[in-house]
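Q: Here's a chain of 87 amino acids. Please give me its 3D structure as tokens.
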Amino acid sequence: MIQFPIMFLSIWAALGREDPRIAEAEAIAEATCACVYLACAMDASGQLLEGRGLEQEDYANLSEEQIARYGAAVEAARACVRAQILE
């Protein structure tokens, strides 16, 4: 009988946890957009834009909001790099 509440609490805690990759992607996008030179923007965005992104299992384990935040961070970094290229 005690196992059910413990299992429920562990699942609830796992679902409520923030994935560190999302915060990292947002920080990289912010650093990329703060750059005023292309070399800086390319260096700042490198890990995010050259990486594989989220893994297939992440789409099952992360909320839609978290996936959207990650995607928005990637797009923001790309847009800031593109803006530097066009300048």
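Q: Can you summarize the key feature?
A: The helical segments are 3-16, 20-34, 38-50, 58-61, 64-86.
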